[in-house]
Amino acid sequence: MATATHSEKTDEQKAICEMVRQFADEQILPNAEHYDAVDEFPEPIVEQMKELGLFGVTIPRSTGAWGWT
Q1: What is the DSSP letter of 39?
Q2: DSSP3 helix / strand / coil % (the chain, rounded to 5)
Q3: Residues with Cβ < 8 Å from 59, sequence gap 6 or more?
Q4: What global pTM score does this model have?
Q5: Torsion of Cα atoms, 52 then 50 then 21 then 44, to 10°
Q6: pLDDT, tens digit, 9 for 90 and up, residues 35-56
């Protein structure tokens, strides 16, 4: 995998961003108002997010993004 600077993404990062953007456009945005209106947890959407591995996404401590060094 190629090393990227902070201003550019690797092909893998671009693919992940596109997948998440598409998922949000197709699953989250069309359903958000419904789940807000009925005050219900979006379990089906969360299950799909789990299947896509979105809850396993991490940010390395070395980035300092969370104040870690």
Answers
A1: T
A2: 60, 0, 40
A3: 65, 66
A4: 0.68
A5: 120
A6: 999 999 999 999 999 999 888 6
